[in-house]
Design a protein that fits this description.
By secondary structure, this protein is α/β, with parallel strands linked by helices. It has 3 domains: 399 residues, TIM Barrel; 127 residues, Chitobiase/beta-hexosaminidase domain 2-like (Chitobiase, domain 2), CATH 3.30.379; 82 residues, Sandwich (Immunoglobulin-like), CATH 2.60.40. It is built from 18 helices and 27 strands. It has an 8-stranded parallel β-barrel, surrounded by 5 helices. A 7-stranded mixed sheet has the order 1-7-5-6-4-2-3, with helices on one face. Bound molecules: acetamide. Acetamide binds next to loops. The site of acetamide (ACM) has 6 residues, from loops.
Length: 654
Amino acid sequence: MKNILVILCIFFVSYSASGQTSVATEPMPSEPVQPIGVPPEIAIIPEPVALIKGEGYFILPANVIIQYPATDETQQTLAFLQERLSIPTGSFVSTISSKSETAHIRLILNDKQNPTIGKEGYQLTVTPNRITIQANKAAGLFYGVQSLIQLFPKEIEGKEPIKDIEWKAPCVEITDYPRLGWRGLMFDVARHFFTKDEVKQYIDAMVRYKYNLLHLHLTDDEGWRIEIKGLPKLTEVGAWNVKKVGEFGNFIPPTADEPRNYGGFYTQEDIKELVEYAKVRFVDILPEIDVPGHSLAAISAYPELSCTPDAVNYRVRSGERIMDWSRGAPPIALVDNTLCPANEKVYTFLDTVITQVAQLFPFEYLHMGGDEAPFNFWEKNVAIKDLMQREGLKNMHQVQGYFEKRVQKIVESKGKKFMGWDEILDGDLSPSAAVMAWRGMKYGIEAAKKKHEVVMSPTQYAYLDYMQADVITEPRVYASLRLSKTYEFNPVPAGVDPKYIKGGQANLWTEQVYNIRQAEYMTWPRGMAVAESVWSPKEKKNWPNFFGRVEQHFKRLDVAETKYAPSVYDPIFKVSRSADRQVLIELSTEVAGLDIYYSFDNSFPDRFYPKYTEKLSPPKDATMLRVITYRGKDPVGRMMNMPIDELNKRAGKR
Ligand code: ACM
């Protein structure tokens, strides 16, 4: 993440001063527009490529028979379908592996491949008598089942039997396949540790939206999360810090006697279990070992990996300040959190780590970080100066480039493809290095022009750690990203050769995410917007239509007990000053058809209070503006309590 502080400060200040612009796109003329507030009957996310609605419904019988292809790869799909169709409904579900005329649901692997739907696509037909899902490969059946479940009432997501529901699915014919092959979510398990079961819970939620890649950010300044045999201190020392809560980044530095018992790591057995859990759900896991920066946990365990003698005194970070970003990127490090590119021991260390990581994760890529390495400790280091002279390196970017090339070689020697954050481009790497573009789309475009494979995961659209609405209602992070902006994500921009764009990804950094419920809150619904951006045809994207479906998914996630953010309903504040320098407050919403009610008298507004219609000027002595959004008679937003002082601050000088 995260620390591009200058950009961040500028962003935050301008955000604070001006509020955010609402970016709701107009519906395409050819698309039927769902009337505002009327729930769509079919609400599949991501939107399928083609869907024709038929007449009538399939009604789930009390005894359901599923015909399935007897392959190992379809077992989990079958188990998932059986579970969903039996637990909430109380139906008895039996399965049969041979062709059966009596089957109510048929899962069929095509004998003759259908080139339209490819490896992950499917065809789903629902008639009053039968449901059929056909696919070329097992993954397609899995995704077809995900869509099927979304056709049934929301209660199908339940964890216990629910009575008095008619378990019906509307008749449809769907042909569907993904726009892109890499549909990723990154989960930072380094800043805060998430248990194996929590990672599984995260996987369960992501597959609902047809994601197929989980990027685990396994190492950082705050923790080393993977057992490496022969390097025990990585997890004995590197996996633990001092538990702190509050606003991460500026914590009081821990004292020597505070217990370092907060954190954790995955054993190699845990990793194998996670890889298998993901695999049967058609999810690959991309491991990331973030070097040469973000390496304080490793250095605390093995200080000899640093260029800086004082590293013997370093400890795993607990969220105290370790970087000065006031002058932009690269930051000025207050402690040296980099592995030393001029130290041969570093490459031996990395060889050991990469060998084991490569064996544990079958996925073809290995992500080696490369972001945000500070240079100020390198600049004054004699060994680095010698290295520069010896190798003819002219600046610190070339020093990092030297490091990246050596790491790339190690990764490739283990039979893996090398991937890194877009800073690796500064090092003039060979096109065989794959680039994950995060600082902006332009870095991905540049990488593609240089013939690198690219995964687009830019901060502007895909950073799930950013706030989803005003800082007044969200846990404070340095930047904001609203759902409607996320929905504008187009991973294959004009002017780029699409063959280099592997796909797109959203990233959940967890400095400010202390538990799995908050991880879910940050991921959903923005994860739905990114899922649609990487799966659905670009031409089918339509914000009002999407949001109508999102609202249905809010209800489904309630039943599934998965947390999500309702921030999209919170109004957007924009402030300015009148000619006589009084603050003027403009309110808007991302979602059409909402009313905003407000008070200046400290009481809590409801729909019997004044409705916002034009810019507001606070009464002279008012100290608080409270606002809430309604749809008709129903409150949908949260009560927002905005101090007038805060608005004055945002409006700038009187
Ligand atoms: C990043 O956000 N530093 C990749």
